[in-house]
Target: Rieske 2Fe-2S domain-containing protein
Amino acid sequence: MVFTELPYDAAQKAGFARAMFDHIENRTTDLADEVLEVDPRVYSDPELARRERAEIFGHVPILAAHGSELPNPQDFLTVRLPNNEVVLVRQPDGEIRGFVNVCRHRGARLVMDDAGSRRFFSCGYHGWTFAGDGKLRAIAQEQTFGSVDKSCLNLLEVPVEQRHGFVWVVDSAAGDVKIDVAEWLGPELDDALTAFELDAYTCYTTGNFDEDINWKVLMDAFLDGYHITATHANTVAPYFYNNVQDWRQMGRHGRVVSARKSIDKVRDRDPSEVDINRHITIAHFIMPNMSILRQPDHLEVLNFVPAPGKAVGTRMQMRILIREPAVTDEQKARWDKNWNILMAVLRDEDLVVNRALQQAVSNTDLRPLLFGRNEVANQHFHHWLRRALDDPRHWG
Model:
């Protein structure tokens, strides 16, 4: 088991400790300026959903995978994104490229498997064959098909970049769309993720959960620390303080530091002398739909992918990243236990509440929803989303 040190200097660690001590002692948390009203239709409006996919997800980098999920050349993954299903393929030079999972002949789904290793992809409908670099290699019974320029029938490619151990994709095959993850993150968050050495981790396991819930409902659930006592009384509530957060905006994105109840063991000490590492969790929220939760011995990565073509539908993706590959039965048992805890919290508690919330906001007679001053990360998310849609090509 590997416990990693927080990549902050002594002053910053002491600052985290002091903030947590003060909030717990005074029963406070970081606050927004005022209560925010949000129209409940943001969770169901088809036109807003269309705009989000076209104007945000079709232009900005989002998480598609962790690089360790494609360790070798010719490895591939099929990944569902808001606009397209994409096939990620590790190239011989180590780069990863992404292609829309559609045969260029008649529009059949080209790759049926979720993952594997393959030099070529052959369409199961008529047998057209494409190489791992997306090039059309063979047309079945070509002599009878007719004259076409094969160089114009390669797979449609989406922009892909590897950074911080992740595979990022812009979900559009439009030729003028580019990807620049560092610019999207901004210098402060990019530096923070560099310090966490995310590329040194490996993906232990991943899970996809398709739900009839708007993606913003789920993003909201994982931004706030206000619901722990009410929603998670049977799982993590005994181990974490409810409604105690230290918030920092990082350009478009943000960071939340939360306190574990184990912090009570050291609250009588000078903050500068406390090893705060095992007493807090740190979550980086990356717009529009991703969170990285740093635990002392692993990372939990959550990604909320809008379902293509409809407002109410999301694929919730969960990953556990660990510092060293699990080889022994003891190591595997430890991470399986962590995964089961995550399932109990997210699948068995959060999803139950949020399925009901989605049903409730379909009622006709509703008033604006309220986000309190204590729900500061949620407020940032909704403010950012409004700005992003009002700010074409800058996205807030």
Q: What stands out?
A: The radius of gyration is 22 Å. The chain has two domains: 10-56+186-390, 62-179. The CA atoms of residues 227 and 234 lie 13 Å apart.
